[in-house]
Amino acid sequence: MGERLKEARLKQSLTLDDVASRTRVSRSTLRAIESSEYDHLPADAFTRGLITLYANFLGLVGPQVADQFFMERDGGKHIHLSFLKKSRMTHALEPKKLAEPTHISSAALATILLVLIVVSFTGFCLYFAWNPFGYLVDKTRNLSSSVTNTFHPADPATSREIQPPPLTVQAVFLTDCRMLVALDNGKPMEQTYAKGTSMQWTAEREIQLEFSQPNSAQLHFNGTPLPFPDSTEGRYILRLPTLSIPYEE
Asked: Backbone phi, then psi, for 47, in 5-degree steps?
């Protein structure tokens, strides 16, 4: 019977690979069926289903071919099968069930997952008596109110310019030092400080300090260490910010 299957396949110009790809029966099993290599075939119930699938694919009557295959194997003896066994072979070992694994579509999985998420979220809301829609509405109202109250061009309280922090310079004198101090638009004043003296100057916009000798003090600007100014034409001038403030010597 295996030779008959092989002849039917060759008449249709089909290779074993062609049949295997379309029936999902392995190439080795198809070869064993055609060669009647009974020892290389699975259990009878599975073999019957595979032969039926193969014969039907070639246009033959699958159940008859399967019966003849087993009769040849058993030396021409017909093995009587009970009605229950025949029914099991017919329904439990259908070709499609042997060839095609059962699977669930991705759309069905996505739908099931979405339903589980909705049910879980609903249970959470009911358990904690939480209304997500009311929460979102309250958040939206608060955000809108905050944006409205933050700035209004006609409201002086919200349109006020941000004032920069004052300028503060601290000095600890390392030597006796004479210097000129000018704050904002004020006139420069000459002052003398002894070694070890600490001094602090504060201004809104500008500070200019001129020292009589180099490295005469340790300086801090708004709490941050500040390097002593370099010499410019023999003068040690510190300007904060770096703006020129004219004055008469």
From this structure: -60, -40
Alpha carbon of residue 157 to chain centroid: 44
> Side chain identity at 134, as an amino acid letter?
G
Residue 208: helix, strand or coil by DSSP?
strand
| Residues with Cβ within 8 Å of residue 1, at least 6 apart in sequence | 36, 65, 68, 69, 72
Strands (E), 64-117: none
Burial track 68-97 (b if 16+ CB lie within 10 A, e otherwise): bbbeebeeeeeeeeeeeeeeebeeebebee
pTM: 0.35
Q: Are 5 and 40 in contact (CB under 8 A)?
A: no
* Phi, psi for residue 75 in degrees, rounded to 5: 75, 30
Residues contacting residue 198 through CB under 8 Å, at least 6 positions apart = 170, 171, 172, 173
Segment 184-237, tens digit of pLDDT? 888 898 989 999 999 998 998 899 889 988 998 999 998 899 899 998 888 899
User: Is 159 within 8 Å of 153 (Cβ atoms)?
Assistant: yes
Return the SS3 of 209: strand
